[in-house]
Amino acid sequence: STQDNLKRAVARKAVELVKSGMIVGLGTGSTASMAIEELGKLISQNKVKDVVGVATSYQSRVLARQFGVKTVDLNDVNHIDVAFDGADEVDASMNLIKGGGAAHTMEKVVDSIAKQCVILIDQTKVVPELGLTFPVPVEVLQFALSPVLRALVGLGGVPEIRNALRKDGPVITDLGNMVVDVRFPEGIKNPAELENKINMIPGVIENGLFINIAHKVLVATKDGDETAIV
Ligand code: DER
Questions:
Q1: 38 C-alpha to ligand 1 centroid (Å)
Q2: I need a surface site. Which of 149, 153, 214, 229 has the fewest CB within 10 A?
Q3: What is the pTM of this model?
Q4: 99 CB less than 6 Å from ligand 1?
């Protein structure tokens, strides 16, 4: 589809940033998956050497193996040179909502330490304010689900347990937790403050507000070229 072609265009552009010897954060989702595939092509064409990836989910680890990108454990490296990842919303300050794929906990660890965190999106993800089109995903310890739901309501949220599509009952993340999607009907005026307030709730593992993490955003526009919000 056209959208796939747009995603692939930004993925191809993004992996041009990878130099031999780099340690690459491998994000999760359909767009990040294309970056893994394009990186695999560069490796198979010997355009880059000695590149290793750090996966952010089962999905990205399996795809890396499939496309010939060697992966190492995050604890085997002391830095990430560049991380490629998708997003569900991006605002003008390059703050993000992520977690549509329920992988935001490991993604945020890798993206936050990357020297260059490069976000790949299509135009539909660009928003004037975070939270207008997408709820904030929150990974929650099952043990603490009820008190966390009450605390999220207390922050002005409207929380909904994420149910799976091809499994009865809730989504269970790669880390064995549940995901709650929280709408904020009043809007999110201060995303940095909200990110911290949500993460301070006992039983919350991580939320999908990514503040001051992205360094570059590559946006695939419908007429095929990419604009980078640097
Ligand atoms: O789950 C995630 O954070 C993904 O990056 C998601 O937000 C974007 O996935 P997409 O590239 O398939 O739209």
A1: 17
A2: 153
A3: 0.96
A4: yes
